[in-house]
Backbone:
């Protein structure tokens, strides 16, 4: 596959190094799965929100979906996670229609963190993260020390292990979001979808959450697909950027190629200057507005 | 890269905090269950002992092991024990039904007595009594069917590419008003004496319990409660919202339908046997969950609270109110539930918050 050729040396050497540690807890993470939308149309009540869209999620990469409000970003994510049945087209996982696969089996490969997940009143952190193990449990497969090890691993990675005995409502917004991500990690999905994981967080915690996802992608090779509002953070953290407008993809590819002044104008109706990010060289969108930047 | 190196050298995470959190959580729920069980046993013993003819503890124990006099046997096995057993069974049925409704629809107001399910049973039963002139067994069958029909109607009306909790509740409240109107019409058209019987049924009472009926109810519960236990895992995921539940591999809509069917059947059954005992379904699970306080489904504690409310209400109605008038238990449960409803409406400003 082409994406293996353009990885940085650090990535390539990082994965085998992390593998033995992950082996005991997370044997499934090594497999690469392909999630693809073909001619996908999605909507509610006949209204079409995503229109005839085709997108192949690159395995092992971080894909960030951006676009103006109501451009269909979250709807697309819900469609990819088979939370919304297609009006037309298909979503396939490794070439098979996701709608026809057993839902628990899909859940061991694709996980979704909704924008506003609901925590039952009074629930403890450890209990909540543990619920991420649901797809692996069944009639003959009850809670085991393997589940404990995976949950502990997920909580350690998100620095929530020390919160294990606390209740969700006692936590700050940033802590809570880390707990939800821990739950998604406990699910041990190869492909993790996140709907605006940084909303309601201050900028420090936004960066913290994105660093965590970056680390997860690099260490475990988890494919990450997320919707983000902040274009600059999107450009910095994405391997691939998907720009949506009115239910369609208008640009897709590496952030440096995709995020141009023309694309920003088309997607957001915003006149902006694009300069290199002084921290890492990714494109930085500087909005112009009506009163500044006469140049 | 440094991140990868850090992860490779990170020691395997210690699962001890998880075990500790789990132990504390389970211990708390177990403790609540033990306390509630003890209270239920005490109330049960007192209801078997106290009455027009009082039995002492040794009398009761002797009678229970088959060594009682014929009058003691009659009092315990023909009068008090059937009544107590019926109260326990319907307490469980109402409480579990309410817990299912409130969890699955994620709304503390979603309870069969608020959203018209028991109301549907009542209207059908009263129609059977007053218009068709049915006997008690046929009336029970009518009540059961009425609850089922009303619940199906609410589900279909609330269906909108899926069922959303608040829609279901709002339509249910509307339906509840409609069946109240129908009840009023039926009662106003009825002969006074028949209307009196119907009104008594409408308050709900566990008096006049007989073993054959109790066996039928117990048989149904022996099927329904294990079914609920099987579905409980899915319900724990639905507590997290449909999206999270679905992404964890639960078919949300299908699971919700199955759980609602079990909940409706439980409420319909209980209503068919004792009438619409007010508010037990509504208050039991919230009280139990507040006591346990761990985000657990708390089905067993909820069932025990339901039993406790039903048995205490029946005891109060029989023995503790002034005057020689023996009241139906439904009056007492209504008197408990109504203030709770007011409190809930006054304090709950976030619709859709889980019960």
Residues:
């Amino acid at each position: 596959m082409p994406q293996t050729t353009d990885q940085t040396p650090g990535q390539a050497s990082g994965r085998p190094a992390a593998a033995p540690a992950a082996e005991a807890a997370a044997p499934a993470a090594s497999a690469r799965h392909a999630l693809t939308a073909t001619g996908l149309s999605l909507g509610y009540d006949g209204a079409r929100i995503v229109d005839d869209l085709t997108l192949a999620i690159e395995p092992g990469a971080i894909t960030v979906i951006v676009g103006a409000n109501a451009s269909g970003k979250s709807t697309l994510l819900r469609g990819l996670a088979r939370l919304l049945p297609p009006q037309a087209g298909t979503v396939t996982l490794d070439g098979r229609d996701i709608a026809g696969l057993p839902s628990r089996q899909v859940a061991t490969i694709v996980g979704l963190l909704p924008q506003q997940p609901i925590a039952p009143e009074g629930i403890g952190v450890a209990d909540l993260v543990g619920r991420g193990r649901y797809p692996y449990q069944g009639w003959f497969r009850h809670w085991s020390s393997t589940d404990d090890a995976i949950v502990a691993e997920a909580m350690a990675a998100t620095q929530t292990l020390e919160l294990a005995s606390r209740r969700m409502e006692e936590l700050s917004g940033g802590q809570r979001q880390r707990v939800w991500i821990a739950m998604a990690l406990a699910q041990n999905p190869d492909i993790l979808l996140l709907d605006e994981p940084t909303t309601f967080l201050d900028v420090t915690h936004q960066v913290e959450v994105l660093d965590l996802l970056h680390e997860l992608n690099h260490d475990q090779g988890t494919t990450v697909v997320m919707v983000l509002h902040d274009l600059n953070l999107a450009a910095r953290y994405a391997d691939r950027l998907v720009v949506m407008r009115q239910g369609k993809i208008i640009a897709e590819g590496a952030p440096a190629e995709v995020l141009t002044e023309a694309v920003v104008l088309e997607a957001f109706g915003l006149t902006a200057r694009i300069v290199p990010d002084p921290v890492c060289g990714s494109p930085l969108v500087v909005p112009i507005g009506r009163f500044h930047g006469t140049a | 890269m440094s991140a990868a190196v850090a992860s490779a050298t990170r020691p395997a995470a210690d699962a001890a905090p998880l075990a500790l959190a789990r132990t504390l959580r389970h211990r708390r729920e177990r403790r609540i269950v033990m306390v509630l069980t003890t209270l239920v046993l005490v109330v049960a013993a007192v209801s078997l002992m106290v009455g027009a003819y009082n039995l002492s503890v040794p009398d009761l124990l002797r009678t229970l092991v088959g060594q009682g006099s014929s009058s003691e046997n009659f009092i315990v096995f023909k009068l008090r024990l059937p009544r107590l057993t019926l109260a326990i069974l319907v307490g469980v049925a109402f409480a579990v039904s309410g817990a299912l409704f409130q969890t699955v629809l994620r709304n503390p107001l979603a309870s069969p007595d608020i959203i018209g399910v028991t109301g549907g049973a009542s209207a059908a039963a009263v129609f059977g009594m007053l218009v068709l002139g049915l006997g008690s067994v046929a009336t029970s069958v009518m009540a059961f069917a009425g609850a089922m029909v009303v619940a199906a109607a609410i589900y279909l009306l609330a269906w909108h590419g899926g069922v959303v909790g608040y829609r279901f509740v709002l339509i249910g409240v509307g339906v509840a008003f409609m069946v109240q109107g129908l009840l009023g019409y039926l009662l106003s058209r009825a002969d006074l004496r028949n209307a009196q019987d119907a009104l008594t049924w409408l308050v709900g009472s566990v008096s006049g319990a007989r073993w054959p009926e109790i066996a039928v109810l117990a048989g149904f519960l022996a099927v329904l409660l294990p079914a609920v236990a099987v579905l409980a895992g899915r319900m724990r995921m639905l507590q997290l919202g449909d999206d999270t539940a679905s992404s964890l591999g639960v078919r949300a809509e299908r699971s919700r339908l199955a759980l609602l069917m079990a909940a409706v059947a439980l409420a319909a059954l209980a209503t068919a046997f004792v009438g619409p005992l007010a508010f037990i379904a509504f208050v039991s699970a919230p009280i139990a969950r507040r006591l346990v306080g761990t985000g657990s489904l708390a089905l067993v504690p909820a069932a025990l609270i339901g039993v406790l409310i039903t048995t205490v209400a029946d005891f109060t109605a029989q023995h503790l109110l002034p005057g020689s008038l023996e009241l139906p238990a439904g009056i007492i449960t209504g008197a408990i539930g109504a203030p709770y409803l007011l409190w809930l409406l006054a304090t709950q400003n976030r619709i859709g918050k889980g019960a």
In short: The first helix of chain B runs from residue 2 to 9. Residues 1-9, 350-355 of chain B have pLDDT under 50 and may be disordered. Chain B touches chain A at residues 1, 3-5, 7-8, 10, 12-15, 17-22, 24-25, 106, 161, 233, 236-237, 239-244, 246-251, 289, 292-296, 353-354 (CB under 8 Å).
